[in-house]
């Protein structure tokens, strides 16, 4: 783990500090000698219902990072959909209100968003300037999240919506895939036709048949590069608005799963057809959109500003995430 640039200083407030990204960022900033104040539902310096405490922490901070939100790795029931919205909008509003009331507002507020905001893309990559916003429940969540970030008049604070691709690192999404691959089920995930009920279609939660034979694009980024992007944003005041946090070399699903198997030394994994994925998703209470939507996202703003990724290609990122030495390959 590298530490932030020594040029960075001042208090950092991290909302959603107990999640995957927060657990990576907190010790990183502390190792750099910065004061860190954490906010979460539990296990942090402050709780989200302590608005006075949040106001005091934000006033005089130099950097605020918003990461809070219920995981989308669940079935999109009405209750879960409401919780997904509420957990993002309420926490973002709490930060925005604190900044609005601050006598010394932070110079930068980086708030989570998601690359899922773009449409299913098989024809071309989505950038901040040319990307097309998609449709459906997940997209509506992302749009509402970004509106909450940018809606208030905060003239003293630069705001960035970090449209993150799938984040790789120790833990996170790779843990279940590692187990599946070792059980011989690490093949590509193949889309196909599947009935979508009227209720799911109305709610925008049913994935429409798209890419064939594992050709859906897989955009990703390593967790350490997300941390380094935040450092870079602090040091580059010309960047604001939406920023794609995605490695510059996305792959397709077939290549991604083949890379996972190669790193683990698993020679073969049969493809997983959609009917099998749908039944499995029901069993483990998740949604197939998470693996079947084609996310083709590239970091236009970061590239233009000269950001250099530590993990620009997939295999080293997966090796590091699995704690496997590069020489094994």
Question: What features would you highlight for this structure?
Answer:
six-stranded parallel β-sheet; 329 residues; 12 helices; alpha/beta; disordered C terminus; Rossmann fold
Written account of the structure:
- The chain is an alpha/beta fold and 329 residues long.
- The chain has one domain: NAD(P)-binding Rossmann-like Domain (Rossmann fold, 3-Layer(aba) Sandwich).
- It has 12 helices and 10 strands.
- The strands form 3 sheets. It has a 6-stranded parallel sheet with strand order 2-1-3-4-5-9, with helices on both faces. A two-stranded parallel sheet has the order 6-8. Strands 7-10 form a two-stranded antiparallel ribbon.
- Helix 3 packs parallel to helix 4, helix 5 packs across helix 8 and helix 8 packs across helix 12.
Strand order of the largest sheet: 2-1-3-4-5-9
Order of helices and strands: EHEHEHEHEEHHEEHEEHHHHH
What is the global morphology? globular
Can you tell me the CATH architecture?
A: 3-Layer(aba) Sandwich
CATH superfamily: NAD(P)-binding Rossmann-like Domain
Q: Considering DSSP H and I runs of 4 or more, what fraction of the residues is helical?
A: 25-40%
Q: Segments where pLDDT lies below 50 for 5+ residues? A: 325-329
Quick one: CATH class?
Answer: Alpha Beta
Beta-strand content = 5-15%
Number of domains: 1
If you average the pLDDT, what whole number results? 94
Structural class: alpha/beta
Let me know the number of strands. Answer: 10
The Rg value, from CA coordinates, equals 20 Å
Main beta sheet: 6 strands, parallel
How many helical elements?
12
Distance between the termini: 22 Å
Under CATH, the topology can be stated as Rossmann fold
